[in-house]
Design goal:
heterodimer, A: alpha/beta, ten-stranded mixed beta sheet, 9 helices, 20 strands, B: alpha/beta, Rossmann fold, six-stranded mixed beta sheet, disordered C terminus
């Protein structure tokens, strides 16, 4: 126990240096986050939710908060997937960067930009939402983020407003010249008013690579009848640690979809929690992850059906090579009042090597009696029969294999409604796959 | 064109084919008949190069080449085509995309220019009429959600596109109603020609009413036990397989 506390020491010291800017309520929020983190510390593999994901490589590294953005760094956003979006809002090392951002031709009344600025400038809205979904009471990483976040991105769509151009939120990490690896505690707050519609792409990326730690929290509020189509692209460096939680609140008849693409990172943990809190709310959670080497990707999702007549759809797929490990835990809660729930969950993983592995668990907690819930999991190698069928028509082994792998991933990619994003994701994913497969073929 | 000598094949360690001898010339249609478990489909699959069918002895030459030395895809590109008894459903692979890839793999092998999308669509349009292949079958994933008849028609459609030198039909008639059977037979008959050989593997004589063979071979216990002309099929239809299994002596070397 003493040892644990000692290991936490640098983190507690970082908490002591937490920002003290902003209004009183925000300082209170940070204080509460700091208190909870001091009590909770980091999760361990004894914690059911973290059984297969050992975060001690994060806990044992002394990260420092990037105090300032690197001076006059010309960030090349061309290498960023969908970096050429018409509307992009950029955070660099935890802070909003106006000069890297461009927001054009947005409908009137929309606010996008720095969360820190919005705290004072949108003082009538932000306090009602920030920290309301992200549970820092029981989650160590969320508590840490709540205490340390300096800035982040804020998107507010007023009632009834339809945004046609997707908004691209880019969270960049770049070296600061410090000898220690840096961490960024970043937040995104997205408030979509009643009957509003918006598409949002969130990207986490470090064009310069390196070891660092991103601890991200995203909260999404979809008002009555709102349509939110969300994409998360995790393109961190292969040496980076990425822990992120996304929290969705869907009101009556809201329709929220979130698609997670996990391409980089050494240890990656994504938590997505969607609360369907109004009748007729609909939720889609899809995911595609790729890992090789000794990387670990852990996806935990929760869809909480709190009200009646809410459909939910979920498909997660992974492609694992090398000694990569993956975890998928898909929880579906159907509360007592949530009659006529229709929940469907599918989880598949393709293991390209004998040393890759996945731990997968569907978790259904159903307290209503008139519901439809289905789940299915399939883990395995490529289908030998399909491979032979393609070869019997003249495609060589490599062509046949690639066609099957692309089809496996294409199932998720094809659901991306932002066409340039889909194209960019496809080309990045296939390039990574080609590299992995070339390594396998060389053995 | 095809010369099979003393072919012996194991499946999961068990010997199924115990010495098949068969000679097929270009332009001929051979029917392979026999009771369940006689090894008919094993012969078809071994010729196509299925990895679960292990050749333990014998020789197969195809157009002078050692067929057994070739991978399944090399056999296909050389002009061997097997219509599957159970066509495989391949989720996520568009049927037209797959057909184009298969056709271009073969054209590339033949030193022909690959077809572009326009040329390919025109070709498909011409070939699809014969087998009543509609647009939706082309735009769906390969065999996914196809009815039994659609799957078999799709196989023969692939054969029409790929124009093999040697076509092997592995129980293509099983599970087909009479209308689908006629469509399939029409498709196969349209492919008959002096440069092409066809091997029809079937349990029933019915298909042979529509695809009339030049030769009929009866397989039993992993060997060809009787060979004859098309009238042999009718005799089998009348008498069943019993008289062959009990009374006949193996023929051939």
């Amino acid at each position: 126990m003493v040892q644990v506390v000692e290991k936490l020491q640098p983190w507690l010291a970082a908490l002591e240096r937490r920002p003290h800017t902003g209004p009183r309520w925000l300082q209170d929020l940070r204080d509460r986050g700091a208190t909870r983190f001091a009590a909770l510390g980091f999760p361990t593999v004894r914690d059911e939710e973290w059984r297969f994901t050992n975060v001690s490589p994060i806990a044992n590294t002394e990260f420092i908060a990037a105090t300032d953005a690197p001076a006059a760094v010309e960030q090349n956003l061309d290498a960023v997937i969908y970096g050429d979006a018409t509307s992009r809002i950029v955070v660099l090392n935890g802070r909003f960067q106006a000069q890297l951002s461009r927001v054009s031709a947005l409908p009137k009344g929309i606010r996008v930009g720095s969360l820190a600025a919005a705290v004072t400038e949108h003082a009538d809205v932000v306090p009602r939402y920030l920290g309301q979904l992200a549970d820092f009471g029981t989650k160590g990483f969320t508590a840490l983020n709540t205490a340390l976040a300096v800035d982040g991105l804020y998107v507010h769509i007023p009632d009834g407003v339809v945004v046609s151009d997707p908004l691209h939120l880019v969270f960049l990490t770049a070296p600061t010249g410090a000898t220690q690896p840096i961490m960024s505690n970043v937040r995104a707050l997205i408030v979509a008013g009643d009957r509003s519609q918006v598409r949002i792409v969130e990207t986490y990326v470090a064009p310069g690579g390196g070891t660092y730690f991103t601890n991200a929290v995203t909260e999404v509020f979809a008002g009555e009848g709102a349509v939110v189509d969300h994409y998360k692209v995790q393109q961190e460096s292969v040496d980076a640690f990425h822990v992120a939680s996304m929290h969705v609140h869907a009101g009556r008849n809201a329709n929220v979809s979130s698609h997670s693409f996990s391409l980089g990172g050494k240890i990656v943990r994504n938590d997505v929690t969607a609360l369907l809190d109004g009748e007729g709310a609909e939720c889609t959670l899809n995911g595609l992850y790729l890992a090789d080497g000794d990387r670990l990707v852990d996806n935990h999702t929760t869809i909480d059906h709190a009200k009646a007549h809410c459909p939910s759809h979920e498909i997660y797929k992974g492609i694992l090579g090398g000694k990569a490990r993956a975890v998928f835990n898909g929880k579906i809660v159907v509360r007592q009042d949530a009659q006529k729930t229709d929940a469907k969950q599918t989880n598949r993983a393709l293991l390209l090597s004998d040393n890759a592995s996945i731990n997968t668990k569907p978790q259904l907690e159903i307290f209503a009696d008139d519901v439809k819930c289905t789940h299915g999991a399939a883990i395995g190698q490529l289908d030998e029969d399909a491979l032979f069928y393609l070869r019997a028509r003249g495609l060589n082994y490599f062509e046949a294999r690639d066609m099957l792998i692309h089809a496996f991933a294409g199932d998720i990619l094809d659901r991306v409604k932002v066409e340039p994003l889909r194209v960019a994701l496809e080309s990045e994913l296939y390039a990574q796959l080609a590299k992995d497969l070339a390594e396998i073929d060389a053995v | 064109m095809l010369d099979i000598k003393n072919l012996q094949v194991n499946v999961e360690g068990k010997q199924i084919l115990k010495g098949i001898n068969l000679h097929v010339n270009a332009g001929e249609v051979h029917a392979i008949m026999g009771p369940n478990g006689s090894g008919k489909s094993t012969l078809a699959r071994a010729l196509s190069g299925h990895p679960q069918y292990e050749v333990t002895s014998g020789e197969v030459t195809f157009d002078g080449k050692d067929l057994l030395d070739l991978d399944p895809d090399e056999r296909a590109r050389e002009g061997v085509f097997m219509a599957f008894q159970y066509p495989v459903e391949i989720a996520g692979v568009n049927n037209a995309y797959f057909l184009k890839a298969a056709l271009n793999a073969k054209r590339k092998h033949q030193g022909l220019p690959e077809l572009d999308a326009m040329e390919f669509m025109q070709l498909i349009k011409d070939k699809s009429k014969l087998l009543d292949i509609d647009q939706s079958m082309l735009s769906r994933a390969v065999n996914e959600g196809f009815s039994g008849g659609e799957k078999k028609r799709n196989e023969i459609f692939q054969m029409a596109l790929l124009e093999p030198r040697l076509a092997i039909l592995d129980e293509t008639d099983s599970g087909l109603d009479i209308d689908a059977l006629k469509l399939v037979a029409t498709g196969v008959n349209a492919m008959r020609g002096p440069d092409r050989a066809i091997i029809v593997v079937t349990h029933y004589q019915r298909l042979l009413d529509y695809i009339v063979p030049d030769y009929v071979h009866v397989l039993s216990g992993g060997r060809i036990v009787k060979s004859g002309g098309k009238e042999l099929a009718l005799e089998l239809e009348k008498k069943g397989y019993g008289w062959i299994e009990t009374g006949a002596q193996p023929v051939g070397a």
